Amino acid sequence: MSWERLLALEGGTVGSIVRANDRVGTAFAATLAGVFRSTDGGERWEWTGDGLISPFVQDVAVSPDFERDGVVVAATAVSGLHMSFDRGESWFRREFWGIRPTVTRVAISPDFGRDQMIVAGTQREGVFVSRNRGQGWNGFVSGLEDAEISALAIAPGASDGGAVLAATDSGALLRSTDACRSWVRVEGLDADPIESLAWIGQETAVAGTVLGRVLRSTDGGGRWETVWRSDGDTVNGIAVSESNGGSRQVVAATGRGRLLQSSDGAMTWREQPIAPDGEVSALCVGASNGRALIGTDRGGVYRLPADGPPAAANVGLVNRPILDLAVSRSIDGEDTLVIGTLQDGVLVSGESGSNWSTTLDDPGLGPITAVRLSPGFARDGIAGGIAGGQVIWSADGARSWVRVGGLTDDSAANLLEFSPDFAADGHVTVGAQDGMLLQSQDHGDTWRSVWTGLDGSEVLALAYSPHFARDRAMVAAAGDEQRLVVIRSADAGETWMPWVEYDTSRGWASLAIPPSFKPDVGPVLLAARDRIAMPPSSGRGPWTGLRVAEGGVAIRQVTVSPAFGRDGLVAAATSDGVYLSNTQGLDWSRMDGPLAGRAVERVSITEADSDRRTIHAAVGSGELWRFSP
Q: Model-level pTM?
């Protein structure tokens, strides 16, 4: 038995990119799926996120002495700042006096070898500064109250009175000359917020704005002049590259797909399209040794060689996140695989993953956070899902979809589940972020609200009893900022009663009900944060909570084998790979192979025959794998 990769979605959105000044052209790209590294100037990429607590990396920076010290810093959403001292092979989170803010921007001093200074800009928490290579940090808020740092740049000599510049989401440009202890607002720039910043020298800086200007300062960031303009074309990225001959080239990239270059200190500019069709939106740029890499929205990375036009360079950059997975086995043994994605709509394969087609690609609908196939999908072809909080429906094998309007407020729905007897009873339920449950009992033709008693809570998970036709039992998990509660129904969702409650923030949750389930008793498996909980055999009292692994491994989904009564097999998709239990969830071990240590979003178990199980696992970054008997 072995793992086989069925799908790899290369490209995607790159929010920050940086090139190191080393001989091989090492580069790092910050993405929604972690950090990717290239060691050949950006031609090929590999995921390098071992140790990153959050996959949502917003910025990345490298030491100017990278070839010697191997230091890389990554800014993540929610989980703070991470550092690597081995060229990105492994990452360690840095604590800021016990808090872990969302870090939006990070910069390393050009004099890092001497002053060891790193500056991290946050969302509403000011800036944090380290002067000992990230070992300790001091926080400064004066002048940055309630500001989200959107751009950050450190001038040479900043530890000796040189300037540090910080732009905020409110449109302010702030300047510090005392190593970030205090900040002074630069006047006259609020009408056109700054989106990108870079230093050309100790006194000369360059900035890109939201309304499409490149600005230049020659007095350390105090006064600015416009040196390039294109109305409405946001200058999202600016980088400075020093060639082997010592000359400096400034490179900028815009939201409408233009690449700007200057070789005279940002005084004059020449421009060219990043892509021949002009349909690329650039978000960032990184440059060194006269070469540049451009990160784009959905288009991955474009590489600008020393001569010639830019070209896409996404080999190995698997960065188009998968959010959900559904699997249906047909009579002839072929699997239909349906994937919900962040930016690529719904992907479908009716041939066990050998061929794929996109059946819903409407950016206006938003991310596909849920896809479900009816229990009789091989016969009736019915599928449902959630796109941007709205219910979508297919009646032709997931080949085409329609929006089911009028069920919830916009962007409110977040899950959908079919009854195991859907063909006979037509029962399907939608859960919403406002605690509401809606049901259809006529195969999705009409809907009604059946429960609003979870007001203020978000419905996080929902499961039908395997014997729903007989016992009418359902289980749901809902949560708010203070608690997570499991509720149950014995009348097909008409009324609900509490089962167990936890004092924990909602986060996310997953429910799995084995075929041996009995109402009010269980078993039920609840995955929430880093634990899987199950009720006692009596059905009353506290639930037993078990970790699948030590070290805070987050569990994204739990699922049980169709033959659970015989094999006791449970699978968990986690931030550390796929974990399995063949003891009904009491003992766990991580599966070896290519997914070990990877952030797995979804896992599914299907029955190949009475003795063999097939496991499908969706890696959050955009890969689908199959473990076959």
A: 0.89
DSSP state of 334: P
Integer Cα distance of 313 and 299 in angstroms: 10
pLDDT digits over 330-389, tens only?
Answer: 766 789 999 999 989 999 999 889 999 999 877 778 899 999 999 999 999 999 999 999
Structure tokens at 315: 């080999």
Report the distance separating Cα 247 and Cα 416, nearest Å: 59
Question: Going by C-beta distance under 8 Å and a sequence separation of 6 or more, which residues neighbour residue 299?
Answer: 11, 275, 280, 281, 312
CB 56 within 8 A of CB 77: yes
Q: What pLDDT digit, counting tens, does each position of 79-117 carry?
A: 899 999 999 999 999 988 777 889 999 999 999 999 999
Q: Which two tokens mark 30?
A: 């910050």
Residue 27 within a domain: yes
**What pLDDT is recorded for position 348?**
96
Q: Tell me the pLDDT tens digit for each residue of 385-411.
A: 999 999 999 999 999 999 987 776 665
Q: Which residue has the tokens 């900040």?
A: 183
How far apart are the C-alpha atoms of 73 and 28, rounded to whole Å?
10
CB 595 within 8 A of CB 546: no
How many whole angstroms separate alpha carbon 165 and alpha carbon 419? Answer: 57
Total structural domains in the chain?
1
Determine the Cα–Cα distance for residues 208 and 602; give it in Å rounded to an integer. 40
| Residues 72/63, Cβ–Cβ less than 8 Å | yes
Contact 515, 524 (CB under 8 A): no
Phi-psi domain of 79 (left: phi exceeds 0; alpha: psi -120 through 50; beta: other): alpha
Q: Does a structural domain hold residue 510?
A: no
Domain containing residue 41: CATH number: 2.130.10.10
Q: What is the DSSP letter of 508?
A: -
Are 328 and 616 in contact, with CB atoms under 8 Å apart? no
Q: How far apart are CA 572 and CA 270, in angstroms?
A: 53
Residue 173 lies in a domain: yes
Alpha helix (H) residue ranges in 445-517: 468-471
Closest among 382, 433, 373 to 408, alpha carbons compared: 433
Q: Strands (DSSP E) along 342-483, which ranges?
A: 346-349, 357-360, 368-373, 383-387, 390-394, 402-404, 413-418, 428-432, 437-440, 448-451, 458-464, 474-479
* Residue range(s) defining the domain that contains residue 259: 2-312
Q: Is residue 581 part of a domain?
A: no
